[in-house]
Amino acid sequence: MAENTIFDRHKQGIIWNDIKIGNDFYMISITRRNDTTQVFLTNLIEIWMETMTNETILTRCRELNPLLNIDAFNYEEVVANILNNILEYIVEASVEQIKLRAQIEEGSMKFALYLSKGTPYEFWEIITKPLCVSSMEIIRQHKILLDLVKRKDEEITEYKAEGAELIRKNIETETFKEDDLKTHIFISNIGKCTSAFQAMMNFYNTLNLNDTSKDSTESASSTSKNDKMEQCKDNGVDGSKEVANEDIYIQRKLETVKSRCKSQKKCTINEKVTSPKIRTRMIHKPIKKLKKGLNDFIL
Fold first, then answer.
1. What pLDDT does residue 38 have?
2. How far is CA 12 from CA 6, 31, 32, in A?
3. CA 176 to CA 153: how far, in whole Å?
């Protein structure tokens, strides 16, 4: 149902859509949390907003539609559909008021949004802060990827020096040059700004979802460990010692495997690297000594 679509948008963060008011471009977002519907309108310089409760929506429907029996049909679904597809139902729009109208079986139903200008702090929370967080995360990931690509090039160079041969020459890549990423940024119109804004906001929503998932996973892991300790306690065993003994056993097992690897004098590596789309086989000739010990491998 249309109602569920808008009511569940908060699970994915604030979603922004383009809207033109007069000759100016704006972006609008409508979300619902619990029993509250929030409307945000911005031109990336200022922000206008309105918060509506279920009672507010019902009262507004009755005031704007005196000839309709609002209680005789599902007005909530009609309003939700209007807000979900707001661009289709706009009759008149300004930054303070957006008049809407939709055709229904009983005739036509009017609705309106009454917006007030937000404070600088609200602009920071809704617009600036998500952009800053997204930018910081993108910069962090950019540095990680650059470092990874550089180290991959070094790794490939070392493989080739040791005699490795790439069978599929068509997937061979050139050495990465950081200067290739340098470019000039040209922004000729506001449309490109709004597209960039929407992309960054979508990225910010993804970050929030990942954080929520991570918190849930860590909480589940912690709960599982606590449950195990409680179970040991119920059986008359010190749970903390039980968990510690298990960790010691695993550590010793890893050390034993590493020791066996280090004792080998010769090593012939025949690896097959597989990805969902590319299958590449790297063949290494037997060598007497590796520059890096096998203890560097993660077991």
1. 94
2. 11, 10, 11
3. 7
- Residues sharing a CB contact under 8 Å with residue 295, sequence separation 6 or more, in sequence order: 258, 261, 262
Distance CA 34, CA 37 (A): 8
- Alpha-carbon dihedral 201, 207, 208, 210, rounded to 10 degrees: 150
Task: Note whether 17 and 27 are within 8 A (CB).
Answer: yes
Angular region, 44: left φ>0, alpha ψ -120 to 50, beta rest: left
Whether pLDDT at 190 is above 70: no
More confident site: 141 or 227: 141
pLDDT given at position 160: 85
Residues 70 and 40: their CA atoms lie apart, in Å, by 26
Token code pair at residue 196:
């960039």
User: Which whole-number Å values give the CA distances from 88 to 19, 73, 110, in the listed order?
Assistant: 11, 21, 13
Contacts of 53 (CB under 8 A, 6+ apart): 35, 36, 37
Residue 97 and residue 110: Cα distance in Å, rounded?
13
C-alpha of 122 from chain center: 22
